[in-house]
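Most newcomers find our protein records easier to grasp once they have seen one. A record pairs a protein's sequence with a compact description of its fold. An example says more than a description, so a record of this kind follows:
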Amino acid sequence: MINTQFTIPVTASAEAAHALDRFALDFMGYSKTLGQYFAAADQAPEAPLVQAYAGALHMALEANTGLAASRPYLARATAHAPNASGPEQQVIRAILDWSAGDHVGALCGLLRHVHEAPRDILAAKWGQYLAFNLGRADDMLRFATLTTPHHEGLAEAHGMLAFGLEQTHQLQAAEEEGRRALSAKRSDAWAQHAVAHVMETQGRVDEGIAFLMAHSDTWADRSVFMREHNWWHVALFHLDREHTGAALAVFDQHLWGEWPEFGQEQIGAVSALWRLELRGVG
């Protein structure tokens, strides 16, 4: 077993364990280089948790192509799971439940695991992702509340907590936690996103535009989803001011065309165009 910084001890080589930690940071931070994890996983076919997370990353495409691409990794995770520790097996089982369409079972499995291993912020981040997709705000907060005390000062942890607080309508605490994350790492896009949600909810439109634009220089090396989603929030703030020209400019420059096959890009683009059409643009 090799110890890691952001997950549990793993049945893997030291090199594979390091790759898993790198993946954890990239995943929590929505890094543009997240896809490099697949090459690392391909070099560690007998490391079951490494394989399971490669499968999970493919499934996060939220499309049949992603599910198909996940299967070889999940097959290797399943084959080598008997050699894994109990905590590793619990995470692998949750990911396999997700692959079988049991999203609630996957969420509950990860929640049990994080209760028992609260330092596992990587599992907590995946749990928060599933909870968000299922509309379970209390569970989003629960994952973050469990793991953040074990990663005090880590921007990504405080960003997770900020969004969980915002989704459960604890707006002042959410903004404080988000700004705490940004004081540790100005480029933490998820913390920026949480603070923007607070400002949108409170109607602080001009402040929201200024806040996001002041951080937009940090988005170039973020994932397609995170970069475009924060720009989407810029467009929404402009629409709140009925500045349809500015919102359309954001769409033209930032919301469409980089990865048209990606469902999240489609969702962001369609929802922005719909809002523009409601205001007579188009």
